[in-house]
Structure formats: structure tokens, C-alpha cells
Design a protein that fits this description.
The protein has 431 residues and is α/β, with parallel strands linked by helices. The chain contains 12 helices and 16 strands. It has 2 domains: 3-209 and 345-428, Aminopeptidase; 213-259 and 277-341, 2-Layer Sandwich (Alpha-Beta Plaits). The chain has helices spanning 3-15, 17-29, 40-53, 65-71, 141-156, 180-186, 235-253, 264-270, 311-328, 353-366, 380-388, 414-428; strands at 57-62, 83-89, 102-108, 126-128, 131-133, 164-170, 194-197, 205-209, 211-220, 278-286, 296-305, 335-341, 346-347, 372-375, 392-394, 411-413. Bound molecules: zinc ion.
């Protein structure tokens, strides 16, 4: 960007701060929390005329219920149509791209429920000091508002995007189900040469996420009267042996690390320099009554695996650990393991041109070097790019340290919103 253009852009972003906040307020006021996610149609219908005015062709795309049911057995608690938006502006339109490269820009329109402990009304934005409060302002409606503003400023300044732009604003991300984005990927609707994910935080350019696998172990016993325990098998006591073995496995798993650095925030809190695999025991249930020897005990948890690991190895490692235990306690232990794979890991090379472009634009717009990072969580975008093989990175508007996404008083700095507008403009223009 030339200096004069950059100054003009700065000035306009300042002048239109209120309009930017107004976009965000409108988006927040449509309660798209999931479950139940019943207002997806409303938010997409609000967005369509906005994108039409900016020269985009819009498609309102519903994820058919039978597709959702086929892939996901638990759809309980979901109400209404699963509506998503695809908005496309290509080089055939007057201010379209000069080159024929396409970019997909993605984030999600759903948010988590309000929860408790708010000091402001969660579905109305409130400005306090230099921040805006409301559910979704950071995760991830702030980036949607910034995108609308960035596209509108480009029209006004007559700045032409170097890419054909395809905007995918999809739903059901927060419930961790088969999301609208997964459906877009399966339907071949993601066609960009590059994919920008506007979900996540603004501390670094995220190129990697962990894969997710949930597991469940049912330990079987034999119930009987608790006064004669020798007649039965206490499943909870047996489960303790399994828990001990899982603890040893956890130690081995978590001694590994990825090549991918973690965020500076993570390093500050944990001393950890790279993302790591994680093994958690998170749920336990068993027993019938105080005076009955428990017939079964079920343990559940998750395993998050780094991009250098793969799902098969992860399952095999767990199976082998349990197999060893079974051999040690011959005749005594009876259990069944079930593994439920979730999102795969995501990885784009830090040397990819696309990553460098996003990093350059983000660093320039925010006025500070944005490092390349990975996160230990999982993203639906990982599922998508496993299909599409697109180079992807995630860079969002909020701060993982300050925004309290998913918590009470979710907030975003107005400065970050404005910098995000500049980031998008800089990315879409020639570097
Ligand atoms: Zn999000």
C-alpha cells in the first residue's frame, strides 16, 4: 500500500468507527447462541443485503437435516434451520480482481450461550472505555463487522481486491458438531486458492491446531449385596487400575511436543514453547446405590494430538496400553474401549507464501510483529482443509488474554476492531 493510501485508510477507519460499532451491535443483537441456534436464518437475512450492496452474489445455504442426522447422532437441542451464507464477488464484476486467484474468507456466526455473571446485557453491545462488551464481540462477530467495514471502505476508496473474494459465514461451529463449514467443504463450495479463518485471536498467525479424539472405557464388574462383596466384582475398584495406567500413558503423551510454537501468552503462563499433545480423563460414572457392589464404571476423556501424530497411531497407543494392563491382570479385568474421532489436526507450513502474506498484513495493520503460532484446541476449519487441501491460517480480532470469549463480559478493544479492518484491506490489496 502506498503511504498516501494508507493515511487515507487510517483517516476513514477513524471517521467510521461508529458505523463499525453499529455493524457489530446489529450482529450481537441477533441471538445466534447454540444450542439451540434458532436464529441463523435471521442473521443471514440481515447480512445478504449488506453484501449485495457491496457487489457480492449471495447464496443462503441450508445444511439439510438428513445430512446432519446421517453424520451426527446427537442433534437434540438444535432448533430451526441450519442456515449459512456464501457471498461471492469475482473478477467479472466491475471492481473485481485483476488476477484470477480466489480467496475464501471464513468465520462462524453462531456464539456460545450467555451463561451467568455478566455485568452488561449479553445480547446488547455496551461501550465501556475503549472496549465493546457483548456475547460474540470477540468470537467471532467482531471480525464479521470488520469485514463489512473493510469491503465498504475499499469501495469508497476505489481500491481493487487482488483476489476474487468468497465469503463463507457459517453456523454450528460452537457446538462442535458437523458445522456449516464442514458441509461447505464436503459440497465443494470452498474453492479459494487460500483460506483465511477469521476465528481465533489476534496474538499470532495460527497455522496449526491439534486433532481431537474422544474416548470411552467401560469397565465391567459384577453386582451383588455389598455385605458379601466376595460374590461380585467391584467395577469402580477395577477402574482404578485403568486410571493408573491412563496416568502413565498421559505422562508419555504429554512429554512430546510439536515443532510448531505456541502463543507468547501460553509460554508466559506455562513456560511451554511449542504446542503439545494432551491426554485428559474428564468424566467418570458408575455405581447404583451405596449398598450395591457396582456392576460397571465408565471413564471418558479426550486426547488432543499434534499435527505430527495421526489418528491411527493415537488409537493404537491407547489400545496397547490397555492391552498390557489386561495381560498383567489376567482374568481380573474386563473392559471395552471406544474411540470417537473429532476434528483432525490442522497444519500449514510457516514458509507458505500465504502465511507470510497474512503475517505481513497483520503486523503492518496492528503495528507490532505477529508471530507464527499453533493452538492445542481443535477447529472445524481443520476438517474443511483436510478435504480441500487449501493453505490456511487463522487470525482473529479478540485477545485470548483479555476478551474472555465463551465467558461473562466478553469484550473486544475498539482499537483491535479498527486494526482488523486495516488488516483485511491490506491483505486484499497488493502487498
Ligand atoms: Zn470462534
Amino acid at each position: 500500500m502506498r503511504d498516501r493510501e494508507e493515511r487515507e485508510l487510517d483517516k476513514l477507519v477513524e471517521e467510521r468507527e461508529n458505523e463499525l460499532i453499529e455493524y457489530l451491535s446489529e450482529l450481537v443483537s441477533i441471538p445466534t447462541f447454540v444450542p439451540p441456534g434458532e436464529n441463523y436464518g435471521e442473521i443471514v437475512d440481515w447480512l445478504i443485503p449488506k453484501f449485495n450492496d457491496l457487489g457480492f452474489r449471495c447464496e443462503r445455504i441450508e445444511l439439510p437435516r438428513d445430512v446432519l442426522h446421517r453424520i451426527q447422532d446427537e442433534t437434540e437441542g438444535l432448533i430451526g434451520e441450519r442456515v449459512n451464507l456464501l457471498a461471492v464477488k469475482d473478477s467479472s464484476s466491475s471492481s473485481g480482481a485483476k488476477e484470477s486467484l480466489d480467496i475464501d474468507i471464513y468465520t462462524h456466526l453462531d456464539v456460545v450461550p450467555a451463561g451467568e455473571g455478566w455485568s452488561t446485557p449479553p445480547f446488547r453491545t455496551v461501550r465501556k472505555g475503549n472496549r465493546i462488551y457483548g456475547r460474540g464481540v470477540a468470537d467471532s462477530k467482531g471480525s464479521v463487522a470488520a469485514l463489512l467495514m473493510a469491503l465498504s471502505l475499499m469501495e469508497e476508496l476505489n481500491l481493487h481486491s487482488r483476489y476474487n473474494i468468497r465469503v463463507a459465514l457459517t453456523t454450528d461451529e460452537e457446538i462442535g458438531l458437523y458445522s456449516g463449514l464442514c458441509y461447505f467443504a464436503d459440497e465443494g463450495l470452498l474453492k479459494g486458492d487460500y483460506l483465511l479463518c477469521m476465528d481465533g485471536d489476534n496474538e499470532g498467525i495460527c497455522i496449526a491446531t491439534n486433532g481431537v479424539m474422544n474416548w470411552e472405557i467401560r469397565v465391567n464388574g459384577k453386582s451383588c449385596h455389598s455385605s458379601t462383596p466376595f460374590l461380585g466384582v467391584n467395577a469402580i475398584e477395577r477402574a482404578k487400575l485403568v486410571i493408573d495406567e491412563l496416568e502413565r500413558l498421559k505422562e508419555r503423551v504429554e512429554s512430546r511436543e510439536s515443532e510448531v510454537p505456541c502463543s507468547p501468552f501460553m509460554t508466559q503462563v506455562t513456560g511451554q514453547k511449542h504446542i503439545k499433545p494432551v491426554f485428559n480423563l474428564t468424566m467418570i460414572s458408575g455405581g447404583v446405590k451405596e449398598n450395591i457392589i457396582p456392576p460397571s464404571c465408565t471413564l471418558r476423556g479426550d486426547r488432543r494430538y499434534i499435527p505430527e501424530e495421526n489418528e491411527k497411531e493415537v488409537v493404537k497407543e491407547l489400545e496397547e496400553a490397555l492391552q498390557r494392563l489386561k495381560l498383567e491382570h489376567e482374568h481380573e479385568l474386563d473392559f471395552e474401549l471406544q474411540c470417537h474421532p473429532g476434528f483432525p489436526p490442522m497444519y500449514t507450513s510457516p514458509d507458505a507464501d500465504w502465511v507470510k502474506e497474512v503475517q505481513t498484513a497483520a503486523s503492518a495493520a496492528f503495528g507490532v510483529h505477529k508471530p507464527i503460532t499453533g493452538v492445542q484446541g481443535g477447529l472445524d476449519v481443520a476438517y474443511a482443509v483436510q478435504k480441500t487441501k487449501q493453505p490456511v491460517c487463522a487470525f482473529g480480532v479478540g485477545s485470548s488474554m483479555e476478551s474472555n470469549a465463551h465467558g461473562a463480559d466478553e469484550n473486544v478493544r475498539i482499537e483491535d476492531l479498527k486494526n482488523y479492518v486495516k488488516f483485511l484491506v491490506m491483505l486484499l490489496l497488493h502487498a
